[in-house]
Design a protein that fits this description.
The chain is mainly α. The protein has two domains: 157 residues, no CATH class; 82 residues, Methane Monooxygenase Hydroxylase, Chain G, domain 1 (Up-down Bundle). Helix 9 packs antiparallel against helix 10. The longest helix has 24 residues. The chain is elongated. The N and C termini lie far apart (144 Å).
C-alpha cells in the first residue's frame, strides 16, 4: 500500500514538473504542448470578403434637371440654370416642356442682361438697403429705365437673390430701342458661348430680326427684303386660359383675351394692300403687348397651364411678326 502511494505521489510530482516546464519553456505554454501532443484537424482559412463597390449613381432625370434649373434660377445663378434647363428639355415629360421652355427663355435673357455688370463706385455701405430703396422707387414709378438701372446696380453689388425678380421686371418693360434690348444686342455682338440660345430668345421677343446685323451674318443677309406677308388668323374662338389662378387673375385673363381678340383684328388689317396698315400695325402692337403682360403675370401663379402657354405663344408670334415689319420700315 505504501509503495502504491509513493508511486502515485511520484507520478503527480512528475506531471506537475512537466506542466511547469511546458508553461515556462514551450511556446504557447501548456496549451501549446497539448496541441503538439494531440494535434487537431486544421481549420480552413476564411476566404476574404468580396470587395464592396459603391453602386453607380442614378442618372438625373428630366424632372431632376428641371428642379435643379429652377433652384439655380431662384438663386440668381442664371448660367447654371441655363445648363440644367438645356439638359431638362432633352427628356422631360411632355407636360413640362412648356415650363422648361419658359424657364430657359427667362434664364437666358436674365443671364445676358446681368453678366459682367460693373460694380457701383463707390460701393454703398449697405447694398441691400440701397437696392431695396431703388426697387421701391421703381415699383412706385415703373419704367424700363428704372428697372434696368436697379437690376444692373444689384448685379454690380453681387446681390444674386434679388436678380430673378429685378431682371424679370426689366425684361417685361423692355422696348425695341430701350436699354435692355441695347445691352442684349451688345452681349450678342461679342460672341458669347450661349449666343445661339440668346439669339433665339431675342428673335422671339422681337429685339432683333433676321435681317439685323446682329441677328444674321452678312454672308446670308439678303440685299433687299420684301415686307413679310400678314397671314390672316382663322375664326378659331379664343377663351380665357384655364389653370390654378386667383379670382383677380381670372378677371385680368378675361381682359387679356379681349385685348388679344382686338389685337388680332388689327393684325389682320396689316396686309400690304391696306394703305392704313401702319396705323393698324401700331394699334395691334399696343393691344397685343398689353395682353402679353397679363399672360406673363399669370404665369407666376400657374406655370404649368397649357392653355396659358398657347395663348402666350400666339401673342408672341404676332408681336414678333409685327416687329419685323416695323424694323423693315414699311
Amino acid at each position: 500500500m505504501k509503495t502504491l502511494m509513493k508511486f502515485l505521489l511520484l507520478l503527480v510530482v512528475t506531471v506537475a514538473l512537466a506542466l511547469g516546464f511546458a508553461a515556462v519553456f514551450v511556446p504557447g505554454g501548456v496549451e501549446g504542448l497539448l496541441a503538439k501532443v494531440f494535434p487537431s484537424d486544421p481549420k480552413p482559412a476564411a476566404e476574404p470578403a468580396p470587395e464592396q463597390r459603391p453602386a453607380p449613381a442614378a442618372k438625373p432625370t428630366g424632372a431632376d434637371e428641371l428642379r435643379e434649373a429652377e433652384s439655380e434660377y431662384d438663386a440668381g445663378r442664371f448660367g447654371g440654370a441655363i445648363d440644367h434647363f438645356v439638359l431638362a428639355r432633352v427628356d422631360v415629360d411632355p407636360d413640362r416642356r412648356d415650363r422648361v421652355a419658359r424657364g430657359l427663355e427667362k434664364a437666358v435673357l436674365a443671364w445676358a442682361l446681368t453678366m459682367n455688370a460693373a460694380p457701383p463706385s463707390p460701393m454703398p455701405d449697405d447694398p441691400d438697403a440701397e437696392v431695396a430703396r431703388r426697387q421701391a422707387a421703381a415699383e412706385k414709378d415703373p419704367s424700363e429705365h428704372a428697372w434696368y438701372e436697379t437690376t444692373m446696380y444689384a448685379a454690380g453689388c453681387g446681390l444674386l437673390r434679388k436678380l430673378p425678380y429685378l431682371a424679370d421686371q426689366a425684361i417685361r418693360c423692355a422696348s425695341e430701342g430701350g436699354p435692355v434690348a441695347t445691352r442684349l444686342r451688345r452681349v450678342l455682338e461679342v460672341g458669347v458661348s450661349r449666343g445661339t440660345l440668346l439669339r433665339e430668345e431675342m428673335l422671339a421677343r422681337g429685339f432683333i430680326v433676321p435681317a439685323d446685323p446682329v441677328g444674321e451674318p452678312d454672308s446670308i443677309r439678303p440685299v433687299a427684303k420684301a415686307p413679310p406677308k400678314i397671314v390672316t388668323r382663322g375664326p378659331n374662338p379664343i377663351y380665357p386660359p384655364s389653370g390654378k389662378f386667383k379670382a383677380a387673375t381670372k378677371e385680368k385673363l378675361a381682359q387679356a383675351v379681349s385685348l388679344e381678340k382686338r389685337g388680332t383684328t388689327e393684325y389682320d388689317l396689316c396686309g400690304p394692300d391696306n394703305p392704313q396698315r401702319k396705323e393698324h400695325r401700331k394699334a395691334a402692337l399696343d393691344l397685343l403687348k398689353q395682353a402679353r403682360e397679363i399672360y406673363l403675370d399669370a404665369e407666376d401663379e400657374d406655370p404649368d397651364s397649357g392653355d396659358l402657354a398657347k395663348r402666350l405663344q400666339v401673342v408672341l408670334e404676332m408681336i414678333s411678326h409685327l416687329n419685323k415689319e416695323t424694323n423693315l420700315g414699311d
